[in-house]
């Protein structure tokens, strides 16, 4: 086994130890079995875009410096990274498209199981498109908005309307640079076209298209997905719940939802405590039904229903290895096909539900929105029926932690504005006055290539200590929740004095859970609202703010990073992007790109140094804005 097994999380530590004793498969074993991984791939120097290849570039020795077609390391690495962006943008944007279709169904089908739960949010969203809904009843309005927003995906002229909600200075810059996304699907298609053999070979021109494709996600597909999810399922408001494997109950039917899209899991959350279903569970010998979530489906239903978080990305098979998961039902993204090998050793039923994601060894119960309640009921009943099939190999780690989660761009700062006033003024004043040093978005996955959660926890704690308020999404949120960083009292334990005062005054934790990885668009909104509130510059790139994904792994994370960079954010990741085989491309992404878009990439594998680089950047922006010195002494004082 790898020596990366020093887990900060006691539940994971216990379960991985048990897995070793029982010879159960884990992600860490599979990672170990892949070593050494391909160095060409790691550096971005392999290409298989045509059958004259595959080609690889020798970065050090006397081997070839170009592919069969003559493509250089710069071209190959740039083409590869923007294909990663296209995949990430597609994943988020397809999710956003599906939610748009749910809204359309609400508009067209009088018997639809969904409704618009937050009409104010829908109206605010519709206003971006000049739609008021005046005189229209709910369904007609839902249809009108859905039809308009669906044009954003496939329109043949103009640019994305929703991207114009970025700060005006940013929109102007994008227009000058030719970065305004034209339509969501078009940018992805054009990226695939340009990276076909014999098309675009200029690395900067490729990256420009990559950024436009990423912006089509962050300020397009993801933002539409987040806003319409809020309209349909409800805009989150802070609530209290629990996180980690210890949320499961031995005497209950445990049903784990996993993936990203909340359309099915939201209905499961709504109906799972219906008397008929609970009675059925009791008839099978259980005391009730316990829902829990993994990955971003977990974040979605935690934010809106308080359903506890069972674990993050890296804990998906460990949940099954407790022996008490009667069903794991999955939708799309971040689900390991390898779960089937674990499930073979237990009674757990694995169920796929999306026609886009079938997996060997999983039962398929296809979800369809026109029968949402009926299918969700069938799924819960199947989980209940499986309860008596448990075998003796059961162990739930007695580890869980409380959290306050469910902050949206509206609710987080409604809080900061006080009970009756929704305004960003107090937040801006706290930054201007030196109580809060700056803002950080810390987000993203975990990866077996580094010590699990060490990156997230080190970066976040170092930022808090230095009075940086942290907004979190995705699996970083689950990690922060599991480690007690999302309890309001956490400010007293981890935050500097200035941040403590702000958290205490408004009753928020120092790390704000802002949702799933789709919901990084909420962080874009927060930054936009801070700019609009005034006093901190005209653009996102003026703000004392930075972003980090210390343990990233997915193509979505690459896309998210690029849309933050293209929005003007200093963006730090742990393991470098697979571009290091091209010095020119690496230098550009971590250097000169900042002169063009105001943001850049930083690769930093030392997590303390990663946090310090973010703070140095925050200080540089504070200085440029001529803000007051910090009110209280700061532990990290960058050299002058
Ligand atoms: Fe090789 Fe060029 Fe084909 Fe890529 S596109 S596989 S570098 S010949
Ligand atoms: S689930 S993309 S591991 S954050 Fe969104 Fe977590 Fe990353 Fe998947």
List the helices and strands and how they pair.
Blueprint: H1 10-22, H2 27-33, H3 39-43, E1 46-47, E2 55-56, H4 73-108, H5 119-127, H6 138-154, H7 168-177, H8 184-194, H9 203-233, E3 239-243, E4 253-259, H10 262-271, H11 275-283, E5 289-294, H12 295-305, E6 309-311, H13 316-320, E7 325-330, H14 339-343, E8 349-352, E9 363-364, H15 372-386, E10 401-405, H16 411-416, H17 425-432, E11 438-442, H18 454-465, E12 468-472, H19 474-482, H20 490-494, H21 497-506, E13 511-513, H22 520-533, E14 545-549, H23 555-566, E15 570-573, H24 583-597, E16 600-603, H25 607-624
Parallel strand pairs: 4-5, 4-7, 5-6, 7-8, 8-9, 11-12, 11-14, 12-13, 14-15, 15-16
Antiparallel strand pairs: 1-2, 3-10
Helix pairs in contact: 4-6, 4-8, 4-9, 4-23, 5-9, 8-9, 9-22, 9-23, 10-12, 10-15, 18-25
Bound molecules: iron/sulfur cluster and Broken Fe4S4 cluster.
Broken Fe4S4 cluster (MSK) binds near residues 334, 444, 445 and 556.
